[in-house]
Specification:
Layout: E1 2-3, E2 6-7, H1 13-19, H2 21-35, H3 37-40
Antiparallel strand pairs: 1-2
Helix pairs in contact: 1-2
């Protein structure tokens, strides 16, 4: 996984998902974006 262009960790998806909070957050955000692209980055109404 890269952070600001530097390699900070490596491993399989399973290893990274279990051990790396930042990787897990990025992966979950990407998953949501694929499912509901119009909703992910729009601010909430109100």
């Amino acid at each position: 996984m890269l952070d600001q262009g530097r390699l900070v960790t490596a491993g399989s998806h399973e290893e990274l998902y279990e051990t790396n909070e930042l990787y897990r957050r990025y992966w979950l955000l990407q998953s949501l974006e694929r499912e509901r692209p119009a909703e992910v980055f729009q601010p909430a109404a109100g």
